[in-house]
Each structure stands twice: as structure tokens, then as C-alpha cells.
């Protein structure tokens, strides 16, 4: 079972293959934003990796980050917990001015089909 360490929050056991966005909410209790429902359309689920960053990235994540000119961050909705990792949750509901974090993302990564680069 991978260990997820969230900077300033703690360390948590996460089921193998769980989406990072859901692990942040369910296991770590972080108020992680995901305004588009975890479909790689909005970048509100941003995290910064401190350690254990996955080498692979979905095509959807790569394209969206490039289109927005973003670097040094990853989209938690497009990452599977398949290793120990340490992240900073930098996109949270608290202080965002949003009414809610967004619709709960599905258990599987979207958009389908998932392609990795």
C-alpha cells in the first residue's frame, strides 16, 4: 500500500491505484479543489510534488499544463497512487472563494481513453 505524505497534514496509507485527488480527500481529509470533476479541464486540482513524483503523465494533463503555460505542478486528478509520494496541496477550497470543491471525481481517470507519455 503506497504512503501519501501531504506537507503540513500527515502521512496516510492509500489503496494502490487510487486517484491522487481522491486520496487527498478521502485518506488525508484535504479540501482539494476539483472544479471540473476530475476531467483535466480546469487545473484547480494542482499539487506540487516534494518527492516521489510519477514519471508518466497522461496526455490530457500534459496538454492542459502546456496550454496554460504551467510548470512545476501536476494535476492530482490525472495521477494514480502507485508509489510513495509527498505533495503540497496548493489548490484548496479554503480561501478560494468557491462554494464547494467541485463534483466528486470518478474512481477512474478521465478523460478516456487514458494515454500516457
Structural features, described:
Strand 1 and strand 2 form a beta hairpin. It is globular and about 30 Å long. The chain has two helices and seven strands. The two termini are 25 Å apart. The strands form two sheets. The chain has a five-stranded mixed beta sheet with strand order 2-1-7-4-5, with helices on one face. The protein has a two-stranded antiparallel ribbon with strand order 3-6. The chain has one domain: Beta-grasp domain (Ubiquitin-like (UB roll), Roll), CATH 3.10.20. With 117 residues, the chain is α+β, with helices and mostly antiparallel strands. The model has no long low-confidence stretch (mean pLDDT 94). It has helices at 20-26, 59-68; strands at 3-6, 10-13, 18-19, 46-51, 74-75, 80-81, 85-89.
Give the proportion of residues in helices: 10-25%
If you compute it from the alpha carbons, what radius of gyration comes out, rounded to the nearest whole angstrom? 13 Å
Shape: globular
Query: Can you identify the CATH superfamily?
Result: Beta-grasp domain
Q: Please tell me the total number of domains.
A: 1
The arrangement of helices and strands along the chain is: EEEHEHEEE
Distance between the termini: 25 Å
What structural class do you assign from the helix and strand content?
alpha+beta
Spatial order of the strands forming the largest sheet: 2-1-7-4-5
Parts with pLDDT < 50 across at least 5 consecutive residues: none
The CATH architecture designation is Roll
The number of helical runs is 2
Look at the structure and give the mean pLDDT.
94
* CATH overall fold name: Ubiquitin-like (UB roll)
- The proportion of residues in beta strands is 15-25%
CATH class categorisation: Alpha Beta
Major sheet: 5 strands, mixed
How many DSSP E strands?
7
